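Team,

Forwarding the record for the chain on the shared tracking sheet. I've put the sequence and predicted structure together so nobody has to dig through attachments.
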Amino acid sequence: MSTTPNERLAAIDVLRGVAVLGILVMNVGTSAAPVGAYFSPALYFSNEGLNRLVFQFQYLVFMNKMMPIFSMLFGAGVFLFALKIDRGEPLKRVRALWLRRCGWLLFFGLIHAYLIWEGDILVPYALLGLLLVWWCRRLRPAWLISIASMLMLVGLAITTLWGAWLIFVLDPEVGSQFGYTPSPFKVEQAVESFVWLGITPEQIDEMLVRMRSDYATIALHRASQMLLNHLLFLPFFGVWFVGGYMLLGLALAKLGVLTGKASARAYTLLTILGYAIGVSASIAILALADAKDWNVGWTILAMMPLTMIAGPVTALGHIGLVMLLVKRNALGWLGTCLQAAGRMAFTNYIAQSLLMTFVFYGYGFGLYGYVDRFGQMVFVLGVWLLQLAWSPLWLAHFRYGPLEWLWRCLTYWKILPISRASAG
């Protein structure tokens, strides 16, 4: 049997709606300009005035805050899906459905990654859903939190070592203090390790020409980059953090935090601690990067490992605040719209990719590299308004979003009713 809309948890849907809209604030940057500008405000656009304020706002509120929430919600999804077993469905059937669900998610993710947009998150979600999270669903919250912490520590160690190597190679002052002078070959290696970011004028020029060209040119380059990403970046970096966030979400679901069952006092405490620690750390990271003039090595050392700590802590503050507002019925019509956007998160996520790539890539309006950070936020606001409006309108007539419906049909391997009229 499939899950009916009445069985869904409103609090989780609202939180998912916040995450799917919030993640666009960061994703738009990788669609609109060289990826390096995502990490460094000084690399491509002006680091002054509104652009500077927008980057600081993005970093403090959204950068590595929305993706952890999404990942935690995926872990919570395992918990909710496994409740079918408690309701009497055979374990073998529920497990088969979950594995099929993740298998189709992998299929959709590969299409998204190779044919639409290179910032895809669905492939690692599907792989971790198949290989990790389902098999940990019976563990107690304390064990899940411990394993999640260990996974994130491994990812933190890897990114820290990488950042330290870059500092030694790309910052002559640091190397000289240890009597180390990198060879031109080593410097070239370090720079080439960031070719996908675009950190040199030559790399940026190549990226601008390519992304303003036709679909075939962009798709062929994307395919080579995504293959490298899936073979190297995911196993060495991505899976450790994303897997940790998922297991943390599974633990929080079991504790009632992500299902809206915790007390208002608990959510208040989570909000205060999350923001006090996470935002303070983020401010310190920005100050460090500013002091180093956004040197590439220092930026990676500060913006990646430390952000991997500050980001999810701030994300917990976001979770606490959203859940507290839902619990107190303080969101009103906005909560209704966010809940609908969250119920259609899969559709809205893919729609964002289609819209942003069409606006900025050469086969659409070709605005790649022309729109600064402030201008990008205007596009983001437009998509927010569009999705907050169309999601409740769609769900007033249909039980699921279009992609959610297709995914369910493929998971259960039968045509499920989508129209509210046909569902009776």
